[in-house]
Amino acid sequence: MNARTGEFAADTAPTLLLLAGSQRAASYNARLVADLAMRLQGCCTVDVLAPEQVDLPLFNQDLEADPETVRRVAAVHRRFAASHGLIVATPEYNGQLPPYLKNLVDWVSRLAYIEAGRPNAFVDRPVLLCSASTGWSGGALAIPPARALFGYLGCVVIGDTIGVPHAASAWTGDGYAFDDAVDDQINTALTRILRLATDYSRAAAMAMTPT
After folding, report:
1. Range of 100's domain?
2. Which string of b and e fits 68-89 if b means at least 16 CB within 10 Å?
3. E-state strands within the chain
4. Is the pTM of this model over 0.85?
5. Counted domains in the chain
6. What is the dihedral of CA 196, 16, 118, 23, to 10 degrees?
7. Please, are residues 60 and 101 in contact by the beta-carbon 8 Å criterion?
8. Does 147 reside within a domain?
9. CATH no. for residue 35?
10. Residue 1, domain member (yes or no)
């Protein structure tokens, strides 16, 4: 991926926000996020949102009146709003998204309704969905609900996905060791999300240019 650095002009180089849907310390999806972040170095600005940086209660609309809760939401919202694209790596729990990820998205999506002037942090942003699992499916059951969620929020969810089956076998202790087919799948998906995020970045820059 680093060989493609020169394709992105400095003034429109995108920022990609990467996040895992699992809070587990040894999460295979968090490890996948780290792998993708390393591949993207030099191609864009990489912002990894770690679970320990998200201190949000279970969504409760009554808490929208609590200044401390709103302050915490705003801190995370800024990270989303500053990005030009999202990469989400999530497991599936009983065929659905983890509560942590859904709760995070619910809070961030609400801030535009809580505070006037806050932008929609999702609309038109390209999203690449990924999943790693210890089984044969590669977390495939996580993708449809994630696609529905981010699509509903106005994101452009790309058709490419990254699936890592048998993640424990691919984990070496220092990183993932993928075969050529998986490497090609990953690099193809990353190239596409970079292109779309760059287009979004350029459009955002043009919108801010005085006429």
Report:
1. 7-208
2. ebbebbbebbebbbebbbbbbb
3. 15-20, 45-49, 85-89, 126-132, 156-164
4. yes
5. 1
6. 130
7. no
8. yes
9. 3.40.50.360
10. no
